[in-house]
Amino acid sequence: MTVHTPTARLSVPVEAFRLANGLDVVVVPDRRAPVVTHMVWYRNGSADDPAGKSGIAHFLEHLMFKGTARWPAGEFSKIVAGYGGQENAFTSFDYTAYFQRVPKEHLRAMMDYEADRMTGLAFDESVVAPERDVVLEERRMRVDADPAAQLGEEFSSALFVHHPYGTPIIGWEHEIEGLTRDDAFTYYQRFYTPENAILVVAGDTDLDEVRTLAEATYGQIAARGQAPVRKRPAEPAPRAARRVSLSDPRVRQPSLRRGWLTPTYLSGDRSEAFALELVADILGGGTTSRLYRQLCVEQELAAGASAYFMGSMVDRAAFQMSTSPRPGIDMAALEAGLDVALTTFLADGPSEIELSRARTRLVAETIFARDSQSSLARIFGASLAVGETVEDVLAWPERIEAVTREAVIEAARRYLRPDRSVTGLLLPAA
Amino acid sequence: MTVHTPTARLSVPVEAFRLANGLDVVVVPDRRAPVVTHMVWYRNGSADDPAGKSGIAHFLEHLMFKGTARWPAGEFSKIVAGYGGQENAFTSFDYTAYFQRVPKEHLRAMMDYEADRMTGLAFDESVVAPERDVVLEERRMRVDADPAAQLGEEFSSALFVHHPYGTPIIGWEHEIEGLTRDDAFTYYQRFYTPENAILVVAGDTDLDEVRTLAEATYGQIAARGQAPVRKRPAEPAPRAARRVSLSDPRVRQPSLRRGWLTPTYLSGDRSEAFALELVADILGGGTTSRLYRQLCVEQELAAGASAYFMGSMVDRAAFQMSTSPRPGIDMAALEAGLDVALTTFLADGPSEIELSRARTRLVAETIFARDSQSSLARIFGASLAVGETVEDVLAWPERIEAVTREAVIEAARRYLRPDRSVTGLLLPAA
Predict the structure, then answer these.
(1) Label partner for A353 (CA 20 to 30 A): which of A271, B74, B134, B205?
(2) ipTM
(3) Which of A46, A53, A156, A157 has the highest number of chain B CBs within 10 A, making it the mutation to test binding with B?
(4) Helix or strand or coil: residue A270?
C-alpha cells in the first residue's frame, strides 16, 4: 500500500485579481523557460447557444479569427507564427477559450490582440457565409464520415434529453446552416465582454508585470455593467433505462458505452463528484482497473475497457464507461460481462488496495499536470470558467484524498443504477 | 370487396371568413338540435413554450379560468352550467382550445366571454401560485403515479431529442415549479391575440348570425399588427435505433411500443402522410388488422396490438405501434413476433383486401365524424390551427382514396426502418 502524505494540496504559486471592468486575471509564474502561455476564457459554451441556434458558440470561435480593423484576417496568426509561437482556440459545453504560447517578450502583443478582438471583431458579411461552409465541412468530416461520432451524438441526446449538453458542441447541421451574421453579432455582443472573461497567464512573468500589461490593454475596455447570465433548461430526472444502437458498414471495431447522469463540482452534492472521480478510476483507469482486469485479462471478452468522469461541468456530468469486444466475441456476451463486473462492484465496493491506488493515481495526475505550463493554465481557466475557485483547484488533491470507502460505494450505488443507464452500441452492418 | 364511390369528398356546409382584426372564423351550420358548439383555438401549444418554460401553454390554459374584471373566477362557469351547457379546454403540442356547448340562444354570451378573456385576464398574483400547485398535482397524479405515463414521456424524449414535441405538454416538473406570473403574462401577451385565434361555431346558427355576433364581440378587439411566429428547433435526422425500458412494481400489464419520425400534412411530403394513415390502419386498426391477427389471434403472443398515426402536426409526426403480451409470454418473444410481422409487411406490402378495407374505414370515420357537432368543430379547429385549410379537411377522404398500393409500400419502407426506430418497454419490477 502506498503511504499518503497528510497534505496532497497542489503547491502552485498562483495569484488572482480582477480589473475594474470586471475581467478576472489569474497569474501562474513559471520561470523554467522564457515563454508564456496566454489564454482568454469566456464563460459561455455551446450549452449557452440560444434555442434553435446550436453551433453558434463554435461558429463564433471561428469568426474570431476573421479579423478586426487593426488586424485583418490572418495577420495576427502570421505574427504569432513569426515569433515561433503557437495559437489555438476551442469551444466546449461551458466555455470558449483562446490561447497563444510565445516567447515572454511578446506577452503584451498577445494582450493587445485579444483585447482588440474582444470588442472589435469586423463581422464582414463576406466572411460569414464561407466560414459557415467551413464549419459545415468540419461537421461532415468529424461526424458524417465517422459512425462512432454519430453514435456519440445519439448517446449524448439520450443522456441529456432536455439540457443542451445533449446537443453537439458543433451544432446540428440544419441549425448551423441557418446561422447568420446577425445571430453571430448578437451572440458576440452578449458574451464577449470583460465581465464574462478570464485571463490566464502562466509562465515567465509575475503578478506585477501581468497587472501592468493587463490594465494597459484589457483594462481599456469599458465594463458592460454586468456579466451575461447562463439560462439553460435543466435536465429532468431519468426514469428509464435507455439504449441507442447504430449499425454501419464502416464499423471495423464494434464498441459499447454506458453512461449515467451525475452531480458535478458545481451542481448537486459536490462530495459525490469527488467520490465519482475515484469510482471512475477504480473501474476503468488504465490496465490495472476492475473492468480492464475482468473483461480484458481474466474473461478475455474485451479488447479494451475504460471509465471516465469529468465533474467540472456547470450543470450535470456524465459518468461513462466504454469497452470493445475481442474478435469473435459477441456484444451480448461482452455486455453480460460488463453487467456482472458492475453488479459485483456495486455489491462489494472497492478493496482498500483499489481505493488507495486510485487516490494515488488521481493525486499524481495533478502533480504531473503542474509540470506543464499549458496544462496548468488550462486547469485554472477551465475551473474558473465553470465557477470553481483557485482554492478549489489547489485543494482538489486533498479532497480526493479525503473521500472514504463508504462515500465511494454510496455514490456508485446512487448513480450507476442499471435502470437509469444509457447504453450505446456501435455495430457493423447486420 | 367494398366498392368505393368515385368521390369520397366530405360534404359539410362550412363557411369561413376573417374579421378585420385578423381573427379567422369558421361556421358549420347543423340544424338538427337547438344547440351550438363554440370554440376558440389559439395557434400556440406546448411546442411553442419558451426554452426552460415548459408547461406554460398548459398553465395559461388553467389561468384562463381565473377571471377577468367583468367575470371573476368561476362566475362564467356557473352561468354555462346554469344554461345546462358544458365547457372545457385543452392544450396540445400545436394549439390550445376553449369550448362551450350551449343552447343556441346563448351563443352571444359565449362570444362575449371568450372575447373578454382573450385580452382582459386578471392575472392576480394571488391565484398564480395556488394554480401552479394545482398543475403540479395534476402532473403528479397523471405521471408520477403512472409508470405507463412515465414511459410515455421517456419514449417521446427518445423520439424527439431536440424538437419540443419531446417535452411533455404539461411540462417538466422542475420547470412548472419555476413558472411565474410574469412568465404567464408575457406568454399571454404574445399569443392571445385575434390574429393568432380561430373561432369555430358549429350548430344551429348560420353565417350571417355568426358574422354579426362575432363582429360585435371579437371584432371589438384591437389588432396587434401581426400574428406571433412559431419558432421551434427542428429535429435532426435520427441515426440510431433507440430503446427505453422502464420497470416498476406497479406494472400489472407489460407493454411494448415502437415509433418512428415521419412527415406530416404540413411538413415534408404531404402525400406520404396520407399513405402513412393507411399503413397505420392496415397494420393496427382494430381486430382485423395485421398486427392484431398475427400477434393476438394466430400466434397467441399478444393481448392487444394497434398502430397509430396522426399527421396533423406542424413539424413532425410519430408513427406508433403498441402491443401487450399475453400472460406467460415474455417480451422478447412478443418483440420477435412484432419484428416478423413488420418485416413481412415491408417486404410484401398490403393485400388489395387490406388496402381496400383500410381506405373504407378511414373514409367512413370521417363520415361518422360528420354526425357529431362537436367532432366537426374539433376537426376544423385542429386542422386550421396547425395550418391546414377548410379545403384540406373536405378533400381528406378523397386524398385517402387516391393513395396507391405502391405509395403505401414506399412510405412504409422509407419510414418504418428498424435502424431508425424507437422502442419503449414497460416491465414489472425485475
Answers:
(1) A271
(2) 0.80
(3) A157
(4) helix
What residue has cell string 376537426? Answer: B379
Q: Where are the alpha helices (DSSP H) in A45-195?
A: 56-63, 75-82, 107-119, 125-139, 147-159, 173-177, 181-191
Q: What do you get for the CA distance between the two ends of chain A, in Å?
A: 48
Q: Is the Cβ pair B246, A233 closer than 8 Å? A: no
Q: From CA B116, how far away is CA B67, in angstroms rounded? A: 10
Convert the pLDDT of each residue in B98-142 to its tens digit: 999 999 999 999 999 999 999 999 988 899 999 999 999 999 999
pLDDT at res. B2? 44
Kindly report the nearest CA distance between residue B99 and chain A, in angstroms: 32
CB atoms closer than 10 angstroms to residue B294? 21
Residues B150-166 have pLDDT tens digits of 999 999 999 999 999 99
| Dihedral sign from CA coordinates of A144, A149, A151, A152 | negative
Is A175 an 8 Å CB contact of chain B? yes
Block residue for cell numbers 465594463 = A223
Reported for A72-80, long-range contacts at CB under 8 A and 24+ positions apart, including other chains, are A72/A122, A73/A122, A73/A127, A76/A113, A79/A109, A80/A110
B61 in catalytic set: yes
Q: Concatenated DSSP letters for B360-375?
A: HHHHHHHHHHHT-HHH
Q: Strand pairing of B86-91 and B35-42?
A: unpaired
Which residues on chain B are in Cβ contact (under 8 Å) with A419?
246-247
Task: Say if CB B81 and CB B72 are below 8 A apart.
Answer: no
Half-sphere exposure of A169 (CA within 13 A, CB side): 16
Supply A120's cell numbers.
472589435
Instruction: Express each pLDDT in B178-202 by its tens digit.
Output: 999 999 999 999 999 999 999 999 9
Nearest-CA neighbor of B28 among B399, B379, B422?
Answer: B379
